[in-house]
Amino acid sequence: KLGFVRQEYPYCRLNQGQGQFEPPQPDKSVYVAPSANSMGILLLKNEKRGRSKTVAPNPVLRSLNVVYAPPEGGDAGDGDSTSSLDPQVVDPSSIPISFISQDYLETEIKTTAIQSS
């Protein structure tokens, strides 16, 4: 049978949460783990009932651009155009994900680099 079951709250130090560096288990919380000798999860009670927060993406992050190196002799796609920059995938928080070849990125860096004197 797989699943998480209630386990004793783990402490690293011998004082069982009575010291200043390791707090005791929070009130009304439950510690569950797959087994007694594995890492578990501490479940905390929601303080405000009936109110769920929506996930708001970080406004600073507009997109996630993944740079890849195509295999030798492989097709890099249309590496000379910006068509590959159009978002191809969207993550669960609605952040667009684009895949850019390493050759395109190097070309873009060379054309936009500021010349130092």
Task: Characterize the structure shown.
There is one protein chain. This protein is mainly β and about 120 residues long. The chain has one helix at about 100-110, and strands at about 5, 30-35, 40-45, 65-70, 90, 95-100. The strands form two sheets. A three-stranded antiparallel beta sheet has the order 1-2-3, with no helix packed on it. A hairpin with a 7-residue loop joins strand 2 (about 30-35) and strand 3 (about 40-45). It is elongated, with a radius of gyration of 25 Å. The mean pLDDT is about 75.
Features:
single chain, 117 residues, mainly beta, 3-stranded antiparallel β-sheet, 3-stranded mixed β-sheet, 1 helix, 9% helix
The low-confidence parts are none
* Main β sheet profile: 3 strands, antiparallel
Amino- and carboxy-terminal Cα gap: 68 Å
Q: What is the β-strand count?
A: 6
**Backbone CA Rg:** 25 Å
Instruction: Label the structural class.
Output: mainly beta
Outline type: elongated
Helix content: under 10%
Q: SSE order, as H and E?
A: EEEEEEH
Average pLDDT over all residues: 75
